[in-house]
Amino acid sequence: MINSFHRKKIKKKKPIKEKNMKLSCSERRVITISLCLIFCLSNSILVIASPAKDLCLPDQRDALWEFKNEFYIQRPDWRMSETATEKWRNNTDCCSWDGISCDPKTGVVVELNLEYSNLNGPLRSNSSLFRLQHLQTLKLGHNNLSGTLPDSIGNLKYLRVLSLRRCKFIGKIPSSLGNLSYLSELDLSFNDLTGEIPDWMGNLKYLKVLRLRYCNLFGKIPSAFGNLSNLAVLSLSDNDLTSERPDSMGNLNRLTDFQLMLLNMSSLTYINLGFNQFRGMLPSNMSSLSKLEAFDISGNSFSGTIPSSLFMIPSLTYLDLGTNNFSGPLEIGNISSQSKLRDLFIGENNFNPGIVDLSIFSRLLSLSYLDLSGINLKISSTLHFPSAMGTLILSSCNILEFPKFLQNQTSLYDLDISANQIEGQVPEWLWRLPTLRRASQVIDQL
Questions:
Q1: How far is 6 from 183, CA to CA, in rounded Å?
Q2: Contact 155/138 with Cβ under 8 angstroms?
Q3: Sign of the torsion angle spanned by Cα atoms 282, 230, 159, 209
Q4: d(CA 189, CA 209)
Q5: What is the pLDDT of residues 325-374, one digit of tens each?
Q6: What CA–CA distances, in Å, run from 210 to 52, 201, 204, 236, 350?
Q7: Following CA atoms 436, 441, 442, 444 in sequence, which dihedral angle do they give, to the nearest 10 degrees?
Q8: Which of 26, 32, 271, 336 is most buried per CB count within 10 Å?
């Protein structure tokens, strides 16, 4: 009875309805978002709490630190800030040091740029620099790295860019540079080097930029340069280079091998051969250099006529043919309206006793700088010149009176008409030119 009594007193709990067992969609979404926030916050706390791992590899850092200590820093008095290597700290990630770039995946140093870092001392053949075997860019220009350029630099076989400009190196260009088969840019300008340009440079098939200015180099340009089909910039000015061997300079009117070779280097955009010992004629079909933007052969002994095809290169903006032995007649040809030529130097050539008509240059509508010094000019009173002219050098041109076309030169900044045959008063309109700055100093010499 007791059991049955208790059985009556005990009430059975009603089963929870199924709809209360399940969460609504909105409730599930709130829980999910909350869990995501908790997970993200916990990860953030872990990241903040854990120190970032250095990208730079220990052996790379050690090589850089040793390289820094191979030189002494001699800052000029005017420079108060620290140079790149003086900012380096040995207990930090070397990939964050000034002038250093690393491969983001492997951590190896791929770029070292210490230009203008006031480094003093020789670059030793056993320098720790050469332990940075993965370097692709090396720029040490504008430092005092005395002595010869060591052969060891040829061991950096992955180099793409090598710039040692103004480093005070002496001696010959090391043949080991020929091992740098990936090299696309080489700049050894303004060093006290000696010897000829080596033949192996013609084997650097990826070379796009070659700068060897002021290097005391002499001799003929290697014929292997004709293999440099990707070369865009060729700067060899201010050396003692020739276009022919000494025993073959008798025939000045024929084209030299080097001049013919230039025509085959169709990728060239910039050529600077100024102030060497080049001689002979320019090819008549210069327009085959269709990408040319700047052409400078001033200060040589080129002769013959200036090919009109030069002025027909649409991309050409800078042309310096000054101080050569070019003779007349001077013809511009049928210039395209697309001509971009802005700077033109033809002065100090042998056009005399012939007379050059100034009007032929009026077709160069983009012209802003014109140097015709030393050329016997014919100037018509009705001449109209492009009004964009900024600098005009007409010294020693046998001019008898102030050219009237100057009245319309509203952009003229510099005017040189010294050493001519002009007599009488300076016209008032000359002083009313809105932008003229330098004419007064020149006119005082008349």
A1: 100
A2: no
A3: positive
A4: 12
A5: 999 788 887 776 678 999 999 999 998 666 899 999 998 989 999 999 99
A6: 41, 9, 10, 8, 32
A7: 120
A8: 271
